[in-house]
Write a structure and sequence with these properties.
The structure holds two protein chains of two kinds. By secondary structure, chain A is an alpha+beta fold. Chain A is built from eight helices and 15 strands. Chain B is an alpha+beta fold. Chain B contains four helices and nine strands, in the order H-H-E-E-E-E-E-H-E-E-E-H-E. Chain B starts with a helix and ends with a strand. The chains are: A alpha+beta, B alpha+beta. At the A-B interface, helix 2 and helix 3 of A face helix 4 of B.
Amino acid sequence: MGKRFSRPITAFLGAIGALLLAAGPAFACGGLIGPNGAVNLLNTTTLAAYHDGVEHYVTAFQFAGGGGEFGSLVPLPGVPTSVERGGDWTLQRLIRETDPVPQRELLDAFRAEAASAEVILTVRIDALDITVLRGGANEVGQWATDHGFRLPPDAPEVLDFYASRSPIFLAAVFDGDAASERGQAVGDGTPVHITIPTDNPWVPLRILALGKGAAERVDADVYLLTDRAPSMLPRATGANGLFLEHYAAASDLLLDDLRSDAGMGWVPERGWLTKVGIDAAAGDLKLDLAIDASGAGQPSPVKAGVTAQFTPLTWGQPNLWWILAGAVAATVPFWIALVIVTRRRFVQPDAA
Amino acid sequence: MSRGRLADWVTVVAFAAVSALAAGLIAFDPVSAAPVRVDIRIRYSHFDRGALTVPYGRPVTFVLHNDDPIEHEWLVGDEEMHRVHRTGTEAHHGSRPTEVSIPPLTTIETTVTFTEPVAWNYICHLPGHEAYGMVGLLTAR
């Protein structure tokens, strides 16, 4: 199938989480955009495939043009065993499978080095420098700041949201100068394949809203390829900005095609293909996509980010005492009836 | 001098001493001469105090705690000053006590004396921060 999927289509980026940052001096007053121009995440496409206890995360970072460097941070569910160049057209083939209309494009890129967070792994793929970091929100944020990333104001809270569940982040930095030297055109994507052993797949969604105003739209596509039909949390109801656009056994032709792409030999013989479209206001996108691929039908609320939004009841809280009091009160008629019946039984022999 | 008169004089002197001491305390007012300390904490790109009141005519030391891993600013002034900063290009603040840059995860102190009653906003003018809610109201009276 080879290169029949043209490069331009490669245009969207899976930059699942794009902490958009423009490297270079950040002006303290005004001027939201760095000297290299805006980095806008228009649309992203990502494949999160899960097989034999390993999540294969395939996305692409798009060269946005210009010199200098652009960067993005992607939260990961665990420490990856490898980060390598992804297949040439895997994402495009998936889109063709579920949507014959070519998607819109997207963008961004970044830069990396090292600082307060622990650097676990560094890889150079074409003009893309990738660094896998381990650290809390402050450490990763400090690292990014130290390396010229201009984090938007919601970054501290969003980094905390992720770091509290998985302190692993991937920083991808596009070296615009190197990309130009390589002859990369604006819109060319660099596919990246991240292999992560984990008990269930997981896709960060909330980070797609990073740096956006509450009313701005988030537009993205997430493909899941699992051994069996997955269950997801939150469910794609449409009303919550998540749309279940494809949910069916993957065709043999698709699996054969995917398997024939570079580095995609791990694709299984059988699988289930799910496509979740995201079209939501940034302010409404507060959760991630937790997936249960085991068939148990119990996606993790923690991975979805739901748990943190609910305060568990404790005995110290008045509402629980009210519940207890209500339960006790509800048994009062029973005790009264029991007393009456018991007294009658004692009285009856005398009466006789 | 009789004992009674002596006692009267002692009483008068004692009252006078107490009065003088009180007058001295009022005149020098060591308490009001010391700077007033006001702590403002920044977390998740928000000031923890949306409004605060300080006395004018006395130095006020603002202790600015930035608990975020990103830089913030604390700029207090009238609307004209904020208008200038919204479109300004000054990369770093610190030369004026009412305009302070606070690096990530650090604490900065600045002392300001408001010479007259004011009601000014304090704002972080880094890109997007004001719109995100980094605004507070300071009243000096």
